[in-house]
């Protein structure tokens, strides 16, 4: 399990006056907390260790002093594949990702109503929007869930489906920003899995 380094951003608050402290007490405002910084080397390798991934995680993570990440992986060649990441702050899990083999499916509807619905529980399709990244590579996204399909083996009719589920959100962040960052995370994790599983079909960005 990897832990992010905590950098003190509260130094500038040292000059807060007694009047401000008293006002915060009267207004029942919680005390300021240090906020942990998520660096590329902190996150699960299977999310893709890029600064863009770290930035996306920082945007959607709850504002807490410390973050940790736990990676899971099971390589079974063309028989089975599983890759996942769990993101925590303290003892609270705020995000999970998972990538596994699914049927390739001939159409978007085949995939969305089958593997995608099973993996992220699309209880109400109206809450999800479709997005297309390239030919035969598509996804669905809601406020806190995203699923993305990337063709892997044509001969075995296998695809890799990647999901991201955001359990706890950053405070005061807009839902459309969640979607953008979750799509970034899903795309990066899918690209990693595509190479890791040695897919024969190209990964089209």
Short description, anyone?
Helices cover 26% and strands 30% of the residues. The protein has 205 residues and is of the alpha+beta class. A hairpin with a 3-residue loop joins β2 and β3.
Characterise the protein shown here.
By secondary structure, this protein is α+β, with helices and mostly antiparallel strands. The protein has helices at 18-26, 51-60, 108-120, 175-196; strands spanning 2-3, 68-76, 80-89, 92-103, 129-134, 137-141, 145-153, 158-166. It has four helices and eight strands; from the N terminus they run βααβββαββββα. Strand 2 and strand 3 form a beta hairpin. Helix 2 (51-60) packs antiparallel against helix 4. The protein starts with a strand and ends in a 9-residue tail after the last helix.
Give structural attributes.
205 residues; globular; 26% helix; eight-stranded antiparallel beta sheet; 4 helices; alpha+beta
The fraction of residues in strands falls at: 25-35%
Q: Provide a count of the helices.
A: 4
Number of strands: 8
Order of helices and strands: EHHEEEHEEEEH
Average pLDDT figure:
79
Which spans have pLDDT < 50 for at least 5 consecutive residues?
A: 5-31
Q: SS-based structural class?
A: alpha+beta
Helix amount, in percent? 25-40%
Largest sheet properties: 8 strands, antiparallel
- Approximate shape: globular
Q: How far apart lie the N and C ends?
A: 30 Å
Radius of gyration: 19 Å
Spatial sequence of strands, sheet with the most strands: 1-2-3-4-8-7-6-5
